[in-house]
Design a protein that fits this description.
Radius of gyration: 15 Å
Organism: Paraburkholderia youngii
Pfam families: NIPSNAP (PF07978)
Protein name: NIPSNAP family protein
Shape: globular
Number of strands: 4
Domain NIPSNAP: 3-102
Strand order of the largest sheet: 2-3-1-4
Number of helices: 4
Helix content: 40-55%
Largest sheet: 4 strands, antiparallel
Family: Belongs to the NipSnap family.
Number of domains: 1
CATH architecture: 2-Layer Sandwich
Order of helices and strands: EHEEHHEH
Length: 118
Amino acid sequence: MVVEERIYSIRSGAMLRYLDLVRNEGIAIQQRILGRLIGYFTTEIGTLSQVTHMWAYASLEDRTRRRSELAEDSQWQAFVPRLAQYIERAENRILVPTDFSPRPGFADHATTLEETQS
């Protein structure tokens, strides 16, 4: 299992518009293709005007396949320019859990991902 962490710095004054767009349109497209959303967060303390969302994948290959499928999706292609206008900077990290890291709910998700690949 791997976790993808995406951190977006949102343009000043645009956070509510960004979140509304994701809530009302974007998250449904992403979840349909990417699968397991761990969470979608905003910052309260520290660097402000940031959004962090995290996605779980069975493997790097699974992530690559799903991200490629998302990039080819016509709904996503129409959505991205509308979302991108609010993003000032983007960061991306792939996190690999240690052997002692808790993984609540991930075992079930990995099975589901493998089944969808068949």
